[in-house]
Amino acid sequence: MKPSLIIDHSFGEAYAKRLGVAPWRGNLPGPKLEEWRFTPLRSLAKIAFTPATDDVSVDAVPRAVPLIAGAVRLVLVNGAYRKDLSSADPGKGVELSHGKVAAKDGSSLVALNAAYAPSSLALHVAGAAKKIVHIVSISAAGSEPTALHPRITVTAEAGSSVTLVESHVGLPGETYFSNPVASITVGEGATVRRYVSVDEDSAAFHLATSLVKVAGGGTYEAFHLGLGGALTRQEIRVALTGENANVRLNGAYALSGASHHDFTTVMDHIVPNCASSQVFKGVVDGESHGVYQGRIHVARDAQKTDARQVHKALFLARGPAIDCKPELEIYADDVQCAHGAATGEIDPDHLFYLAARGIDAETARSLLVEGFLADAVNEISAEPVREQFAADIARWLKARQ
Amino acid sequence: MAVTRETAAAVRDVEQYKYGFVTDIESDKAPKGLSEDIIRFISAKKNEPEWMLEWRLKAYNYWLTLADEEPTWAKLHFPKIDYQASYYYAAPKREKLASLDEVDPKLLETYKKLGIPLLEQQMLAGVAVDAVFDSVSVATTYKKKLEEMGVIFMPISEALHKHPELVKKYLGSVVPYSDNFYATLNCAVFTDGSFVYIPKGLRCPMELSTYFRINEKNTGQFERTLIIADEGSYVSYLEGCTAPQRDENQLHAAVVELIALDDAEIKYSTVQNWYPGDADGKGGIFNFVTKRGACRGKNSKIMWTQVETGSAITWKYPSCILQGDNSVGEFYSVAITNNRQQADTGTKMIHLGKGTRSKIISKGISAGRAENTYRGLVRIGAKADKARNYTQCDSLLIGDKCGAHTVPYIESRNPTAQTEHEAATSKISDDQLFYCLQRGMTQEEAVSLIVNGFCKEVLQTLPMEFAVEAQKLVGISLEGSVG
Amino acid sequence: MALLEIKNLHASVAGKEILKGITLALEPGEVHAIMGPNGTGKSTLSNVIAGREGYEVTKGEVYLDGKDVLDMAADERARAGIFLAFQYPVEIPGVTTSAFLKTALNAKRRAAGQPEIDAMDFLKLVKAKTAVLGMPYDMIKRPLNVGFSGGEKKRAEVLQMTMLEPRVAILDETDSGLDIDALKVVSEGVNSLRSPERAFLVITHYQRLLDYIVPDHVHVLANGRIAASGGKELALELEAEGYAKYLNTAA
Q: Which of A116, B43, B158, B328 lies 20 to 30 Å from A317 when distance is taken between CA atoms?
């Protein structure tokens, strides 16, 4: 495939000069790249962003960020760790450090992050972490359009376990481009649960990349929630590198206004005897645009793979768009792989049934939407997080009424 | 597959392609390569009207601008094609045949070998055959009977003279000259193909059939088929393809356009068995085909059924544009790849009208070192209220050196529409195979039986004579894949 | 000469020895029952005779009519006349029972140098056989074993046996999962096939089946060996006393 890249001026010499680093020579992905066909970056490329600085006056975590019971909180403002806003101690089994960003991969967004990320919030997990670690990433632009490049690195040692929550939020009315990268390494027999909520402001761009490696016998359970932003993409690339690794990757989106949200997943089965499942659900209202594209790749050696994927989306109005591309790329014969996809609207029979029980139309719709998204949300095994995410969805539904 | 045992049939050579013979017929060829002169030559040979030549030249000049636009998005790997190394016109030397008696006996012999009953007395009742040999339509049988009913079934080159108004009105109306690299090339250089018009209200009582054959070395075949079903009519059309065995790759870039007006129905069935190349991937047809049907009228229906077992490379997406309200598009496909074959095939269902419905059933079977991709698009336009799509894609892998891929695109812009897509990958289980062996079947019989079962939903949509041939072909195509 | 002769048969699965020297001779017309607790190699014995992949014969011989069976591939054994009625018949989607039967029948006929069966004759034959077995004729139009109840699957096995007319039929736990009515129907089907030219090897865990298919000989399989042989009264004794004493002595 011929790569088509936008010649990008926003992150060149001047940008680098202000950060005092070597300039990034790359380009943002262009519309002719197959992986970006449903999510063009024209609107983003038009804006000249300045680098985020630390000297922004954020003195409290926005109220919208939930307090998760029993969780320890780590706060990033524009990608930089803010000890003053964080809990003192990340809890037993988790070590916190800040390092220079090193890891890169082929994607231009990851390279952009690597070039300009101030530092990486690194969590090192050994043993069973008792407390949920809640990472809050706050974008604070001020008056100028600002770009920020948060970096999170999680290394779970063999046999360890940890539960992470990430909240990505911004300050209202500001234009910013958040380009977070998370590198997650799940060691042998380790368990990482990761729950990500992206609830950006309506003028914000959020293009997140998660790079996950799961070693033999490891378990990675993740849930990603997308509720807003002008343009949000959550790209999650998972490599199952050791036998008997197990991945459950799920997500939901609820969009209104002109929001564009894109879930892109790549599930890479490299070795035999691994399992992965994906359940993604979305509802679209207003003029919004929901995208799901998921690729399951099963390498020649990855016999006995069990890989499944489903995406279902519901229209709540006339006006939104849904694009979906579930993809199977299979090179091993003794495998079980399947995907399903569906789009539609709320079943009028269901609405009528609820009406017949005296429930008004709006309440009935909310109830049915919550029920529809619950298939995905219920995959969250950490109860307080499941409740919190369900509450976030309920709040979204209330706001659209 | 875990089952390993010595089969008597272990040694298989290229002879297994039973259509791999070459007919020794003197032919009339244009010089090699492509230029405006060649296009003028083709047009002059066909004695075409000026507007046709202009259209060809427009396409050719546009094609020149596409030099870097040869599609690369399909999951196919093949060396760059030198379009100047091919002959764009080759015709058996005797032309202007008044009757079947004048057809070169060698040609008739070829068709006999292919199993096409060309001579009327040998024909299966109810199948009218148009045979295209390299670039020229050789004979159309049952002409008279069809004419009496008002059915026009003739080579498109003849239709240009006899029914210019129909050709002019519909040619390029579904696949415009600027559609894609291969279709544009076809517009410039197509030499013949079939033309069908079914008049209002007529249910065509016999199946119409075209058999395509590439015979000449280094020739491309660029046929163009145009089928128009007028209001309330029905036609079932069959297409079969073979080519001799050659070490060089040969190009086949056809265009098929279907138009169904109000309440009309077209059923288009293909059994594609072009030479697939040998076991090491040498030779074989490059099959780049643009097939598209427009359901222009309300309640119209177009149904594609394809059984793709041949060709070294298959790039083909028979599609339906569902414009008329309540129109229906269906696509049933079996694609089998073995050895080094590669297929990237599927469909597009474009829902524009209200209440439009589409159904896609795709069965991909991959064996040897082959690559088999289903690629499909379901697009629901903003005005397609209550549109429905159901898609089912199943893949079967035989052995651990092949690949099977599923790449569906689903784009919906209408809340009242429903789309549903399911795909699964499986293999022939050892238990199934042992069960069949225990009942005395050979390995190959067992595989053929199980794969035919896997494809049943598709095969049963074929007309009877074709279904039997297709079932056999399924078995033959997979010979040597297990063991 | 015995119809089926098994001599000192040893076989292992994944390196583990399951059969540790089985010797058996089935004369034409005889019904032999093999009984034993679970996990003693009953199913292994049937799979080894039928030639399933994954079973390694480490020692011993098996002869059908004096011909070496172990040299043959599974399909050759089947065409030579060995029929295995499976404990768990597999589903083959899209392949009708009728198409399956016809393919199997023709494979056998071809091997015997006979022409393929005419389509009409085939249907007549199936119709007759299903009637004898009290099976609804429509069943043969359904995909093989797909969605069949336990009883239907076993009846379909007997139908196949009836059509293919084997020399030796091995019934692997044919009674499992059957209620008493289905058991009767299946047994009647088997009994109708008993003939002086044919032998049966009936593998079962319970004596119950042997009330309906009365054996000439009963063998107890324990720990991969024949621990005892006797007449049909041995089955009753096992029913009353269990397998414990054979397990102990064999251990």
A: B328
Contact B365, B454 (CB under 8 A): yes
What are the structural domains, with CATH classification, of chain C?
Answer: 4-250 (3.40.50.300)
C247 in contact with B, Cβ within 8 Å: no
Q: Which residues of B make CB contacts under 8 Å with C?
A: 2-6, 429-432, 434-443, 445-446, 449-450, 452-457
Residue ranges of domains in chain B: 10-359+380-389+429-476
CB within 8 A of B464, min separation 6: which ones? none
Nearest to C154 by CA among C128, C138, C176: C176
Most distant CA atoms of chain B, gap in Å: 68
Would you call A332 and B397 a contact, using CB atoms and an 8 Å cutoff? yes
Per-residue CA distances from C74 to B434, C19, C65, C69, C197 (Å): 8, 19, 17, 9, 22
Q: What is the pLDDT of residue B353?
A: 97
The Cα-based distances of B178 to B82, B289, B329 in angstroms read: 21, 15, 24
Residue A69 tokens read as 């019971």
**What DSSP letter does each residue of A22-68 carry, written as one string?**
PPP---EEPTTSGGGTTS--HHHHTS-PEEP-S-----S--TTSPPP
Retrieve residue C134's tokens. Answer: 């009290």
Q: Pairing mode, if any, of strands B342-351 and B371-380?
A: parallel
Q: Count of residues for chain A?
A: 401
Least confident piece of the model among A195-204, B68-77, C208-217: B68-77
- List Cβ neighbours of B423 (8 Å cut-off, separation of 6 or more): A326, A328, A338, A339, A340, B374, B391, B392, B393, B394, B395, B406, B408
CA distance B219 to B240: 18
Q: Where are the alpha helices (DSSP H) in A170-224?
A: none
**Structure confidence at residue A106 (pLDDT):** 65
Give the mutation candidate from A39, A278, A333 for the B interface (greatest B CB count, under 10 A): A333
Average of per-residue pLDDT across B466-478: 83
Q: Give A146's contacts (C-beta < 8 A, 6+ positions apart).
A: A49, A50, A51, A52, A78, A139, A140, A174, A175, A176, A177
C-beta separation of A330 from B374 below 8 A: no
**H/E element holding C103?**
helix C97-111
The structure's pTM equals 0.87
Q: Which residues of chain A have pLDDT under 50?
A: 1-3
At C138, is the secondary structure helix, strand, or coil? helix
Asked if the model's pLDDT at residue C57 lies above 90, the reply is: yes
Q: Percent of chain C having pLDDT more than 90?
A: 54
Q: Dump pLDDT digits (tens) for C169-183.
A: 999 998 888 888 888
Q: What is the mean pLDDT of residues C120-129?
A: 92
Query: Would you give the DSSP letter of residue C167?
Result: S
- Which of C218, C173, C145 has its CA nearest to residue C46? C173
Burial level of A174, CB count in 10 A (0-12/13-18/19+)? middle
B411–A345 CB contact, under 8 Å: no
pLDDT of residue B10: 29
Q: Are C and A touching by the rule of 3+ CB pairs within 8 Å?
A: no
- In angstroms, the separation between the Cα of residue A273 and the nearest Cα of chain B is 15
B225, B190 in Cβ contact below 8 A?
A: no
Question: Looking at chain C, which residue has its C-alpha nearest residue B455?
Answer: C94
Say if CB A189 and CB A161 are below 8 A apart.
no
Is 60 exceeded by the pLDDT of residue B95?
A: no
Q: What integer pLDDT is reported at residue B470 of this predicted model?
A: 85
- For residue B149, pLDDT over 50 is answered with yes
